[in-house]
Specification:
By secondary structure, the chain is an all-alpha fold. The chain folds into two domains: 5-203, Growth Hormone, Chain: A (Up-down Bundle); 213-427, Growth Hormone, Chain: A (Up-down Bundle), CATH 1.20.1250.20. It is 78% helix and 1% strand. The protein has helices at 5-8, 12-44, 48-76, 78-95, 102-116, 119-130, 133-144, 146-165, 167-188, 200-206, 232-237, 239-270, 274-288, 291-304, 309-324, 336-364, 367-399, 403-423, and strands at 216-217, 426-427. The radius of gyration is 21 Å and the shape is globular. The N and C termini lie close together (10 Å).
């Protein structure tokens, strides 16, 4: 009989609370500039071309950061590297308050992107350190929901501070939130084996998935040899690396499409003004915040029911992929709220997909390579996002319609799932 939660303890969930708040702060800092664009543009005369440059600076830095930050995290450890990253992005967030031109904002956004690029690799690695395989997807879904919470609370915080104290104060206050988190992180976070507050029972529960009990099987059902050290080229050649990176490349852009183009879609298709957009956007982000938890719970439940890890993750991913498909119907729908409902469902499914696709990394790679692989996959997804952004813009300009974009977006996750099905080797069932 497995130990129940009471006997095991729940100290590990405090780690998830820290990761949740870090991700929330991450998205608050990311969203501030977009919300303040009209105010800043009118005050210091930033053109649309300038704003495009500023946004590109963040995206480029984020992609560049993902190239090397995972390797740094794996070498330095989660505690120190996460602390350094939040210091960088918090200082960059505060820096926005003192710059006075497009170049200054571009520099601030660049360093914000560099710092924020470490958030998910570090959080995924921390989850792998503190949770057994059967709970990782659920834990990932919980901390990843912080991204949606950040998107929901940002308008409230930023609007209040800007109205009361000016836009500079909004940057200073939101940027300073990271330093509060930093204190809690340094006081609390240690590896399980170094934590004096962790019970023996919970430590045994966390470390139940020893390396020898979790091996990849080749196409003949034989264990694949796993090296303690591996170089970049060897990592890239692995089937699991190809599958995960290719799937991220195919579908990561869809989330950014919903994030950046939904307001434009509502305005062009339904005549919705800025004030009228607030409620639909809150509905979308609020609903999607539960997707990561639901997706993580589904795969964890399947594992607890006795299914192997590969089946459980892929079943959850397929379920999420199919829930995105209905967006292909949106261009033909006349009701705003029906469209909002379908987009909300798709964003809900994306977050469920994300909680499982992130967890795949810790399923297939030892802890000393988790952050490196998470960064590599994130970089691939970012490249897909950059290319897709240009594609979406050109398609909209040429056709004046969202039909093609929604059609591709609706099928992207199914194609990504097929990539995983084709390339991922099986993972042996975890012994508990």
């Amino acid at each position: 009989m497995p130990l129940n939660e009471t006997k095991i303890g729940h100290y590990r969930w405090r780690v998830i609370a820290l990761l949740f708040f870090a991700t929330t702060i991450n998205y608050i800092d990311r969203q501030v500039l977009g919300m303040l664009k009209p105010v800043i543009s009118s005050e210091i005369h930033i053109t649309e071309a300038d704003y495009g440059y500023i946004v590109s600076a963040f995206q480029a830095a984020y992609a560049i950061g993902l190239l090397f930050v995972g390797r740094i995290i794996d070498k330095m450890g989660t505690r120190i590297s996460y602390a350094v990253s939040i210091v960088v992005w918090s200082l960059a967030g505060c820096l926005h308050a003192v710059v006075r031109g497009p170049f200054g904002f571009g520099v601030a956004r660049f360093f914000l992107g560099i710092g924020e690029s470490a958030n998910f690799p570090a959080a995924i690695k921390a989850t792998a350190e503190w949770f057994p395989i059967k709970e990782r997807a659920l834990a990932t879904g919980i901390f990843n929901s912080g991204s949606n919470v950040g998107a929901v609370v940002s308008p409230i915080i930023v609007t209040f501070l800007t109205v009361q104290y000016g836009w500079q104060c909004a940057f200073l206050v939101t940027g300073s939130l990271g330093f509060i988190w930093l204190i809690c992180w340094l006081l609390f976070y240690k590896l399980p084996q170094d934590s004096r507050k962790l019970s023996r029972a919970e430590y045994a529960y966390i470390t139940q998935d020893d390396k020898e009990n979790r091996v990849k099987l080749d196409k003949f059902g034989e264990p694949e040899q796993v090296k303690d050290k591996i170089n970049w080229w060897e990592l890239i050649k692995e089937r699991s690396t190809i599958g995960i990176c290719l799937s991220r490349f195919v579908c990561d852009w869809v989330w950014w499409f919903f994030l950046f183009w939904t307001p434009d879609f509502m305005e062009k298709s339904y005549g919705v003004n800025i004030q009228q957009m607030v409620l639909p956007l809150i509905v979308i982000y609020t609903f999607s915040s539960f997707g990561g938890i639901a997706g993580g719970y589904l795969s964890s439940k399947l594992i607890n029911l006795g299914h192997n890890v590969s089946f459980s993750r892929k079943a959850a991913l397929l379920t999420c992929a199919l829930l995105v498909v209905p967006v292909v119907l949106i261009p033909g729908i006349n009701s705003l709220w029906v469209s909002i409902g379908i987009i909300s469902l798709a964003c809900f499914a994306h977050q469920g997909w994300a909680s499982n696709i992130y967890t795949l990394v810790s399923d297939y790679y030892p802890n000393n390579r988790v952050a490196t692989m998470t960064s590599m996959a994130g970089f691939t997804g970012s490249i897909g996002g950059v290319l897709a952004a240009s594609f979406v813009g050109n398609i909209l300009q040429i056709t004046g319609s969202y039909f093609v974009v929604f059609l591709i977006a609706g099928m992207a996750y199914v194609v990504a799932w097929l990539c995983l099905q084709l390339f991922l080797p099986r993972v042996a069932e975890v012994k508990s």
